[in-house]
Amino acid sequence: MAGVLVDTCGWIALVKAGLNLDSAMSNVIGKPDLIVIDSVWKELNDISRGKRGLLLGLLKSRSDMMDDPPGEKHTDMMLIHLSKMNNWPVLTVDTRLKEKLSESGCSYIEVVSDRMLRLVD
């Protein structure tokens, strides 16, 4: 299994595209070990109050929850830190986060054309 950090907008994009989690991930990384940090979980919960259909039950049942890493205040920086430290890609569609990940030598998984995932190393 390969660790994959989940970013808020990455999860929302995957759900919105109607992608099957298992088959979409297997095409790019194999069987994923999804990892959700506390900050991302809080963001998703906040968004879900005004938006239905985010499949948070599925995400929670299929993920390992992780405390936010100490020393970082911003969610993006936490994801970059963990990605770099553990060589885990980040599921995201956030352009700024993708740029920061690339600059830090980290990889990411993005939703492409609302129909598939792509791993960018």
What is the H/E string? Answer: EHHEHHEHEHEE
Residue fraction in strands: 15-25%
DSSP helix fraction: 40-55%
In the CATH hierarchy, what is the architecture at level 2? Answer: 3-Layer(aba) Sandwich
Supply the number of helical segments. Answer: 6
List unreliable stretches of 5+ residues.
Answer: none
Shape: globular
CATH topology: Rossmann fold
Question: What would you give as the CATH superfamily?
Answer: 5'-nuclease
- Measured on Cα atoms, how large is the radius of gyration? 13 Å
Largest sheet: 6 strands, mixed
Structure description:
Helix 6 links the parallel strand 4 and strand 5. The longest helix is centred in the middle third of the chain and has 12 residues. The chain has a single domain, classed as 3-Layer(aba) Sandwich (Rossmann fold), CATH 3.40.50.1010. It is globular. The protein has 121 residues and is of the alpha/beta class. The chain has a 6-stranded mixed sheet, sandwiched between helices. It has 6 helices and 6 strands. 46% of the residues lie in helices and 22% in strands. The two termini are 18 Å apart.
